[in-house]
Amino acid sequence: MDPILRRSSFFYVTTLLTYCGLMGRFLITRDWPAFEIIPLFMPVWLASALLFSERDESYAFLRTLPVTDRVVVRTKFSLILSFATIQWLLMIGVVLLRDDGVSGPSTLVYVTLVCAFALLVVASLQVGIWRYGTSVMTVVIAAFVALGLVLVIVHMATLKHVDNWPALSRLAVVEWLGRAPWLSSAAVAALVLAALHGLMRIGVRVKASSEACL
Amino acid sequence: MDTILEARNLTKHYEDFSLRSVSLEVRRGSIAGFFGPNGAGKSTLVKLLAHQTPSHMGTIRVFGLSYADRERDIKNRIGYVPQEPPFYMDKTVRWTARFAAPYFARWDGGGFYGLLDQFKVNPLKKVKHLSGGQKKLLSIAFALSHGAELLILDEPTAGLDVVYRRALLDRLRAFVADGEKTVIVASHITDGLDEIAEDVSFLTDGRIVLHEDKDDLLSRWKWIHYKDGALPQAVEDRLTSVQRQPFGNRGLTGDFPAVRADLAPALAAGDAKVENASLEDILVSLIKGA
Predict the structure, then answer these.
(1) Closest CA to A176 of A164, A189, A188
(2) In the predicted model, is pLDDT for residue B1 greater than 70?
(3) Sequence-distant (≥ 6) Cβ neighbours of residue A174 within 8 angstroms
């Protein structure tokens, strides 16, 4: 196994396990807002994994080794993509398992959209680390995580107590995409992969030209 | 001359410093020394040569290859020791070796642990618990353990005690002994590396102000000790770093062959004598004259 992958995946696995604990509620609840709220924690968890894996990363040491920036970028992006995919699969699996009225086709699309958002945001944060350095981006990622948690909690509380508060999973566009959930998900996945590929190319250029992360 | 490294017009700008249009060649089998005062640009130059930082302009070819196309191949053949070696500080030395080894095409684990043993670096210790000198020795052990043909060393003796410094100098001499391997070293001049360097370059203010074979350089630069009025004016005019003292004067010339004839009468009369200059003397003179 690639040493960079081995080292960084430890943090992602740890974060994934804690997220799985959170997802347990998915399996037992009959409360539909759980399917609105729980996916929203996914970007926060993925960003946390990035934060912990990058905290003591030594790009200066990596640069002394026969490993190119392209390989480093590809490895890091593969890791983010893999764990976003695993979390997506787990959530989709639960949604399909719970095909008992509390979730539906639009939930499936909603989960896909949230995972796509998380993937692109976290990949962008990774590029930000190469561009601006770990110390600057630690503040940004920590702020993203904190803000994400606050927004999710506020959204959850408001959803429960304020009539007509819009549920993201029941927005018109999500409902519309939910008419053909697998096709929509495939289209979203294709768009996201294309965007990720573009981000990866930018990442290689940024990492090669920036010294902020060294 | 078989050139192992060639750089053309290397330029690197920082907020308060620029390395400006540096060109150089390093021949195979030599020890090339880059010397200069603090802030002269030695570390920047060495980082550029080892592809640790991007340049704003210029080209570098190592073993005839360019980093843009063959970075991995080149880095497999060079050993780089930075001024402040970076590692994963929270990890042990052994972990670091296990991490790095798969990336090298010719990793010599036995040789690496042998060097650690010789350097008295405990592989079970976390890197953050090593002293500055031990981190440097660890970096040197990495550089010497993957069959490198070119060592690029930035202040390699900084932080080392006299025993390890001497051992390192001996090891570098042995490294180039077969004429196939090469060492590039950037350093302050007073740490013994000036003794082993064969090609000498002086940097100041982001420029190479002098590049020459060390023996040729030392044959040109001499201290001349003389009594008042003993030297012809033509000779005195060519002296720099002149120190006038009650018991005799001395001045440095950078063109001894040109003044030798004019100096001959004073030498014969015992009113003057010639002494070898050190690289440090020459560097100081050049900086003052710059």
Answers:
(1) A188
(2) no
(3) A106, A109, A110, A113, A168
Task: Name the strand (E) or helix (H) holding A128.
Answer: helix A105-132
Closest by CA to A57, choosing from A88, A11, A24, A2, is A11
pLDDT tens by residue, B150-203: 999 999 998 899 999 999 999 999 999 999 999 999 998 666 787 889 999 999
Nearest CA in chain A to B97: A3
Yes or no: say if B62 and B150 are a contact pair by the CB < 8 Å rule. Answer: yes
- As given in the structure block, the two tokens for residue B47 are 């980082």
Q: Contact A203/A124 with Cβ under 8 angstroms?
A: no
DSSP B232-279: -HHHHTT-EEEEEETTEEEEEES-HHHHHHHHHHHHHHTSEEEEEPPH
Q: Which residue of B has its CA nearest to A212?
A: B53
Pairing type for strands B182-187 and B31-35 reads: parallel
For A7, which residue in chain B has the nearest alpha carbon? B99
Give the bridge partners for B8, in sequence order.
B59
Residues of A in contact with B51 (CB under 8 A): 63
Q: Does A66 touch chain B (CB under 8 A)?
A: yes
Instruction: List the single residue in B99, B105, B142 with the smallest CB-CB distance to A7.
Output: B99
Contact B42, B34 (CB under 8 A): yes
Q: Which residues contact B218 (CB under 8 A, 6 or more apart)?
A: B276, B277, B279
**Nearest chain A Cα distance for residue B90, angstroms:** 8
Tokens of B200: 């000498």
CB contact under 8 A, B102 and A56: no
Beta carbons of B103 and A208 less than 8 Å apart: no
Choice between A94 and A139, residue whose per-residue pLDDT is larger:
A139
**Domain range for residue A28?**
3-212
pTM of the model: 0.90
What ipTM is given for this predicted complex? 0.89
Q: Which residues of B touch A (CB under 8 A)?
A: 50-54, 71-73, 75-76, 80, 82, 86-90, 96, 98-100, 102-105, 142
Q: At B6, list the tokens.
A: 């060639």
Pick from B72, B76, B87: which is nearest to A58 by CB? B87
Q: How many domains does chain A have?
A: 1
The percent of residues in chain A predicted with pLDDT above 90, rounded, is 72
Q: Would the CB atoms of B52 and A68 count as touching at under 8 Å?
A: no
- DSSP state, residue A214: -
d(CA B211, CA B181): 21
Residues 159 through 198 of chain A touching chain B, CB cutoff 8 Å: none
Question: Among residues B107, B134, B106, B132, which one has the least CA distance to residue B120?
Answer: B134
A55 touches chain B (CB under 8 A): no
**Does the structure show a pLDDT above 80 at B47?**
yes
Q: A66, B54: Cβ pair inside 8 Å?
A: no
